Amino acid sequence: MTTRALVLGGGGPVGIAWETGLIAGLGEGGVAVHQADWILGTSAGSFVGANLALRRDPAAMFESELAYASLLKETGGPPRPAPDLSALMGLLMRKPPNEHAPVALRIELGRLALESKTVSEEVFIAGFGPLAESQHPWPAGYGCTAVDAETGDFVVWSDQTAAPLARAVASSCSVPGIFPPITIEGRRYIDGGMRSGTNADVAHEHDRVLIIAVVPPAFAPFMLGGIEAERARLHDAGRDTALIIPDAASGEVFGPNLMDGSRRADIARAGYAQGKAEAERVGAFWG
């Protein structure tokens, strides 16, 4: 029996909006990638993936994204300016080309997170809305990634671990220097994107792997080599892969900062249009 994995990469509020629109657009085109045997999320993808794994309808998620963007606009936009990512990007630019961030670099990223002044863990987790407000059991066929802030160890939270769902997703979204490391079983964890923006190689047990990667046009030279290296590892393991990155129309509305949610509605709509346009190609792969 052929098994299918959906890998959702990181990308802040921009990534959440685009991935939500894209998956809804694919669904409108008849391709139900949200019904994957396994969903792996990193950072923004962990939030989108958790909602899909909890059997939320992609079309309803898309409408909720538009409604949320409308609410932000009515109330004067995001509650604070887009954060300064210069310290984080300075560290990430030291990642070796086409490789995962080494443990030593992940420890430095963890140190940045641990030493930064942020909101409390409780406030951050509460921002995940319904995902945080109820005690959801861990959904079958879902995993999300994080990094131990002190040791740099990479972890994949799943139904085989002791992590509560809301805390696991929050840890996967804990961008160093912006959000607080999240405490789970006495350890503190940061964004799984500090190892890789997609971590697609984790899906090596599945026959077909669809990778959805938030790659702004300006970041493509820095990001695509690593993604292709992960795909090569999957191919070496006998797996088939397909990749979706933002098309020109989506990239045009992203803006320079993935943590800037001021264009969420336009980004979600661009993702939706791209999803419909990609449906035939992706459907041929997904089966």
How would you describe the overall organization of this protein?
The chain is an alpha/beta fold. The protein is built from 11 helices and 8 strands. Strands 1, 2, 3, 4, 5, 6, 7 and 8 form an 8-stranded mixed β-sheet that branches. A hairpin with a 5-residue loop joins strand 3 (142-148) and strand 4 (154-157). Helix 1 (12-28) packs parallel to helix 2 (44-53) and helix 4 (86-92) runs antiparallel to helix 5 (103-115). The two termini are 12 Å apart. 47% of the residues are buried.
Please render the helix and strand layout as text:
Blueprint (H helix, E strand, L loop, with lengths): L3 E5 L3 H17 L9 E4 L2 H10 L4 H17 L11 H7 L10 H13 L5 H6 L3 H4 L8 E7 L5 E4 L7 H8 L9 E3 L2 E5 L16 E5 L7 H17 L3 E5 L3 H7 L9 H23 L1
Parallel strand pairs: 1-2, 1-7, 2-3, 7-8
Antiparallel strand pairs: 3-4, 3-6, 5-6
Helix pairs in contact: 1-2, 1-3, 1-11, 2-8, 3-11, 4-5, 10-11
